[in-house]
Amino acid sequence: MSTHDSQQVIKVWDPLVRVFHWSLALFFTIAYLTEDDFETVHFYMGYAISALILFRLLWGIVGPEYARFTNFVTGKDRVVRYLKSLLTGKAEHYVGHNPAGGMMVVALLLMLALTCFFGMTLLAMDDAGPLAGSFVIYLNEDLVEGLHELCANGTLMLVFIHIAGVIVSSVLHRENLIRAMITGVKKLNAGKVKGDTHV
């Protein structure tokens, strides 16, 4: 942590978190756009997303401070309190994910995991993929296909909400969160730093 022009430059996002974030954004975009016409690409993107999810779950346990789930996954009361504080324009400024952002991380990972699971279930019904021969082949194919599409569209909706949240938070706290996820650092006013969790 260093000080420059009355600001503290804080290293927040480690390289693996940043690579995960942008790779996930890219792979989901490709997967969503190739669903109908480029099935092979769609399948491999699904596998790649699944691998990224597994990595993030592990990194959320053993990774550095701001990557760990214990740093940003909070109870619903804290999330609600934070969202209400946004309406007043006086929301606490967190170094890492704020409570709403933490909730979004969990929601996205869960929705993506379900999307991948139902996609692999469809493959298994054609005797392909890692779930081939398992109990999932006895599920209703039309139901599974509908759930796969529902979860994919649900993920897209969460992505739009996530982007809106990033914009709102960037404006309220006068920081560039997109740049922070590229560079890994945040520049905070030195006089406002109150602790490791939020400022």
3D structure, described in words:
It is a multi-pass membrane protein. This is Cytochrome b/b6 domain-containing protein. The chain crosses the membrane at residues 12-32, 44-62, 103-125, 152-172. The protein is mainly alpha-helical and 199 residues long. The chain has a single domain (2-192), classed as Fumarate Reductase Cytochrome B subunit (Up-down Bundle). Helices cover 63% and strands 7% of the residues. The chain has 7 helices and 3 strands. The chain has a 3-stranded antiparallel sheet with strand order 1-2-3. Helix 1 (15-33) runs antiparallel to helix 2, helix 2 packs across helix 5 (99-124) and helix 5 runs antiparallel to helix 6 (141-173). The longest helix is centred in the last third of the chain and has 33 residues, at 141-173. The protein is elongated, with a radius of gyration of 19 Å.
Short description:
The protein is mainly alpha-helical.
Key structural traits:
63% helix, 3 strands, mainly alpha, elongated, 199 residues, Fumarate Reductase Cytochrome B subunit
